[in-house]
Amino acid sequence: MGFAEQLEVVGKMLLAAFCGGFIGWQRDRHRYVAGLRTMALVAIGAMLFTAINDHYGQDRVTSTIVTGIGFLGAGIIFRDAGTVRGITTAATVWAVAAIGVAIGIEFYLVALVGTVLVFVILEMRPFTEYLAGRRRELPLPNALRRNQDEDDEDLGTNRIDE
């Protein structure tokens, strides 16, 4: 692999780190354990395996990424007193790996749109909790709230305690 090809892989690696890190930043803001570093590393790892796959023509690498991320995701999911925790985190890790693969095979637009969609879906949690009846008020930005003293944004679980 020549210098120009390696530079292209470095560019892909930076894009994968950005996309995974952007999604991880959303997780960090809400104090979830798997945050910026985890998601950036998953995206970079998946992209690197895909780039190796693309360069050497080993078609099985991508399917192995899916299997490996599935195994990692299974370790993230916990069952506790009739509830299941970590499913969204596991699904996020899986989606970030897919974004890394998309970058590895040069589907840049797909990766960027996928990054934005994952971010938006993760940000929808307060609205889905309101629609499901687990929140009393429709979540609005602080500037639009009547009572700014009480912020029950983080009623969920799997957060790091300060």
What would you call the shape?
elongated
Overall helicity: 55-70%
Unreliable parts = 150-156
Oligomer: single chain
Task: Please outline the major beta sheet.
Answer: 2 strands, antiparallel
Give the count of structural domains.
1
**Radius of gyration, in angstroms, nearest whole number:** 18 Å
Walk me through this protein's architecture.
By secondary structure, the protein is mostly helical. The radius of gyration is 18 Å and the shape is elongated. The longest helix is centred in the first third of the chain and has 27 residues, at 3-29. It is 65% helix and 4% strand. Residues 150-156 have low confidence and may be disordered. The chain has one domain.
Key traits:
162 residues; mainly alpha; two-stranded antiparallel ribbon; 6 helices; 2 strands
What is the gist of this entry?
This protein has 162 residues and is mainly α.
Strand and helix map with partners:
Elements: H1 3-29, H2 36-56, H3 60-76, E1 78-80, E2 83-85, H4 87-104, H5 108-123, H6 125-131
Antiparallel strand pairs: 1-2
